[in-house]
Amino acid sequence: MSYLLMAASAGLLAGSSPLSRRYALCAVGSASCLFGSREATAAAEPPYRVAMTILLDPSNPATTAGEVVIEVMPEWAPLAAARFKELIDIGFYTRSRFHRVLPLYVAQFGVSTNRELNTAWLCKTCKRLPDEPRLQSNKKGTLSFAQASVKDTRQTQVFFNLVDNGGLPNFLDSQGFTPFARVISGMDTVEKLYNGYGIMESASGGMTGAVNVNKAAYYGEAYLDEVFPKLSIIESVKLL
Fold first, then answer.
1. pLDDT digits (tens, 9 = 90+) for 136-145
2. CB under 8 Å to 124, separation ≥6 — which residues?
């Protein structure tokens, strides 16, 4: 499930943001602009905060809402920080479910309930984010983008680390997962997310009884409400 640094290509540079272009050029070996260097840290965007209202139990909305405040740290991972803000701005995460919650491991979200947004962002080659060097450990309360076992596969899915996952037994640091944010308040809400679906991961890497991400991306809330009605929901998310 790991991947490392991306070499720049014409396809990446064309039409990309100034930050993406700078990162791509750094990735091909300009030591003076490697992220994590003094120069890059000084040029990083300032931290920003996000408030996420979570409905823990959809069947009981009056009493199970909680708020989580997240501080996003561009100096840790500038591309991830910029991507997260962009997705919040377009409403990608509104009504998104926590579709993968594994106790003592991670809580993952990041499939929109809007089919058009998923079509634009979640195809295999769509808007893939270049890898970034990991500057922080996957400690409890940090957030990282999910990724596949090949390079440059971050897109929209994000997970909360529910425990310290950097070393034993989960080794997320050595697999290349790059934290870009941390919980400032409301970790108790994150720890109460519904985890009754797919608690055990199968040998193939999937989860027994778990949400089918492709179906969730295509059918949206109709599929999720019918098959997984207890999943906790991001009711709203906004920049502070």
1. 999 999 999 9
2. none
